[in-house]
Specification:
single chain; 268 residues; mainly alpha; 0% strand
Length: 268
């Protein structure tokens, strides 16, 4: 197989985590070796559910119980929630490779690289879950990230704006607080993993920023006004702050965007 889109689809469709990770690493290595090429001639299939295991059970986010971090069970639930985000992020990155055709080579490199990183993050979190006596699937989870992928499937500008720069960027905002609380509890094993993820997620959000602005330049539209119009059209205005300004600036946000996001969060 030398079609990058077909290889991405194989990764996307794999249901078992171990197989998805194996295919992801294999595909990334083949891409680096120059064995895979993007072929814009064949259109993608309509988006549907990605490959995923029977568990975790997916429920509305409001149905997920709030657990304190003072117990092993609470810490395991937190690690599981982050692992679920990373598992979704593998699928999101491969769908970005699979779905959008005719992009520059750097676009496909960025998202294949992201998929490879997210697979590594998921493996680290899975190992930590095992140390805590659990496995991926032991706790319920929600499907918000993939639901937004489905909503934005037909418009690359919206996908790049809202999945990396809003939903995934939320991790930049909340992870430092998680690290601080876990460090206070002496859980340095989980802290070390979250610090790796936080550092590398800045680059992933930056990729979203880069390709969002590429789409805006292609279409001759203002990136800041379009970003807030997409927020309103797809998500309403219910945003939560505060925002990690240093990390978001490093990921390509500009001060005007962050000021307006903060104002929306206060108004909401």
């Amino acid at each position: 197989m030398n079609d990058l889109h077909a290889a991405a689809k194989r990764c996307l469709d794999a249901t078992e985590p171990a197989e998805k990770l194996r295919l992801t690493h294999e595909t990334w290595q083949a891409f680096l070796a120059g064995d895979l090429r993007a072929d814009p001639a064949s259109p993608p299939e309509p988006i549907g559910p990605p490959g995923r295991p029977a568990k975790p059970q997916l429920v509305n986010a409001r149905q997920l119980p709030q657990r304190g971090l003072g117990s092993d069970e609470g810490r395991a639930a937190l690690v599981h929630a982050v692992a679920h985000i990373e598992f979704n992020a593998i699928n999101l990155a491969w769908d970005a490779v699979y779905r959008y055709r005719g992009k520059p080579a750097a676009y496909y490199r960025d998202w294949a690289s992201c998929a490879h990183d997210e697979a590594r993050h998921f493996a680290l979190l899975s190992d930590r879950l095992a140390e805590l006596g659990h496995a991926y699937g032991d706790f319920d989870a929600h499907n918000g990230l993939w639901e937004m992928a489905e909503k934005t499937a037909g418009r690359d500008t919206a996908r790049m704006a809202l999945v990396p720069r809003v939903l995934e960027a939320r991790g930049l905002d909340v992870t430092p607080g998680m690290i601080e609380r876990l460090r206070g509890l002496g859980d340095e094993r989980t802290v070390a993993i979250l610090e790796v993820i936080l550092r590398e997620e800045v680059a992933h959000v930056a990729a979203g920023t880069r390709w969002y602005r590429h789409c805006c330049e292609r279409d001759g539209i203002d990136p800041i006004e379009t970003f807030f119009a997409l927020l309103r059209d797809y998500m309403g205005v219910s945003l939560r702050g505060p925002f990690n300004r240093p990390a978001r600036l490093e990921a390509g946000f500009v001060e005007e965007e962050l000021d307006r996001l903060a104002a929306l969060a206060l108004a909401g």
